[in-house]
Write a structure and sequence with these properties.
Elements lengths: L15 E9 L4 H7 L3 H9 L8 E6 L1 H7 L14 E2 L4 E2 L6 E7 L2 H15 L3 E10 L19 H8 L12 E10 L1 H5 L3 H8 L19 H4 L2 E3 L4 E2 L2 E2 L2 E5 L4 E10 L3 H11 L14 E3 L3 E5 L2 H5 L13 H6 L15 E3 L3
Antiparallel strand pairs: 1-5, 1-6, 2-5, 3-4, 7-12, 7-13, 7-14, 8-9, 8-15, 10-12, 11-12
Helix pairs in contact: 2-4
């Protein structure tokens, strides 16, 4: 039997994207269940007019929404995003039942599809966060550094992002974590380039990673390098994009990372915000503040087109309570992840 076809996760970075985070209204579950299989048709209707625009849409479903829409069985790794509280910086958990990651070569295609989706959500869901991302020069973020250099390619990308035999009922799916970061560009630009490079762990102009002996242990690159117990580096697939409003002085990066298990991204975030060791946090956070955080399961294309019928599933708390109050990380910053470790530990 062929492997389930994934959604269009592993497509190249495009010039434009719209990220919609949606909450499902009480009583809106049936309308949302009817919308999900129609998303692929909406995408075809919009994208057919400009096929060279390469319009795609990836749909993610949050923990509380899965309980309300489908019940059990459920993806093994799906849970609410856990807020992380470091000594100086926090990664908040914010509401999100559905994620629509819309990408194209042209913003008008993204806009049209976003409009069609939100029309279908009227009366059953609300957009609680909307970000219009753009490609900036040679894949650089607004801090001036190339973003996504370490993305795996080819089969390695599929291995990093897609669920396989570890959860066969949901093979071809993925997990995605999203966060919106706002940058203090004035303070960042006051730093010397050499200090910026030390914080990031790469050269700014040529995008070369510092050798290990010159790389600060709390650099962004060092804290986001995760290896397993056998010494193999664990990868994720990022499609981060800059966004902003010049008149409002808003400049940011929308982080979006896909992985076949959320624990890899969660450990990266723990390292960044809590530090490794504790207190040795990512100093890029002194200039970039996380204001949102959500975790979603991304079903395979087939499962999205033909989602499971709702079934009862025991829930320890009401869906509303779970959506509004995601569990926080323990006081010591741990996410109870025991199977991974940082490079050099």
């Amino acid at each position: 039997m062929p492997a389930p076809e994934p959604q269009a996760i592993l497509t190249p970075l495009t010039e434009a994207a719209i990220f919609l985070t949606v909450t499902v209204d009480p009583g809106g579950e049936q309308a949302v269940r009817e919308l999900l299989p129609d998303v692929s048709g909406l995408r075809r209707s919009v994208g057919f007019r400009i096929p060279e625009g390469e319009l795609t849409c990836v749909v993610g479903i949050g923990d509380a929404a899965w309980e309300r829409l489908f019940g059990s069985p459920r993806p093994a790794g799906l849970h609410p995003f856990a807020a992380i509280r470091g000594a100086r910086h926090d990664a908040p958990a914010t509401p999100g039942d559905l994620l629509f990651h819309i990408r194209a070569r042209r913003l008008d295609l993204c806009f049209e599809l976003a409009q069609r989706i939100t029309e279908r959500l009227r009366g059953c869901g609300r957009v609680v966060d909307e970000v219009h991302g753009f490609r900036s020069f040679d894949e650089r973020d607004l801090l001036g550094f190339v973003d996504g250099t370490e993305n795996p390619g080819g089969s390695e990308a599929g291995e990093a992002a897609l669920i396989a035999e570890e959860d066969p009922d949901f093979a071809g799916g993925s997990y995605v974590v999203v966060q919106k970061y706002l940058h203090d560009l004035q303070a960042w630009d006051e730093l010397a380039v050499a200090e910026q490079e030390r914080i990031v762990g790469r050269t700014k102009l040529s995008d070369l990673e510092f050798p290990d002996e010159l790389k600060a242990s709390n650099s962004h690159v060092a804290l986001n390098t995760i290896v397993d117990e056998d010494g193999n580096e664990r990868k994720i697939v990022r499609f981060n994009m800059p966004f902003g409003r010049v008149g409002a002085g808003e400049f940011g990066t929308y982080f979006i990372g896909y992985a076949h298990t959320p624990e890899v991204i969660e450990l990266m975030l723990q390292n960044m915000f809590v530090g490794k060791p504790q207190g040795n946090y990512d100093h890029i956070l002194d200039f970039s503040r996380a204001v949102t955080g959500s975790l979603f399961f991304v079903p395979s294309a087939g499962l999205l087109d033909d989602p499971p019928a709702p079934s009862p599933s025991p829930v320890p708390a009401s869906a509303g309570e779970r959506a509004s109050s995601p569990p926080s990380a323990p006081a010591d910053g741990s996410l109870a992840i025991g199977s991974l470790r940082e490079q050099g530990s």
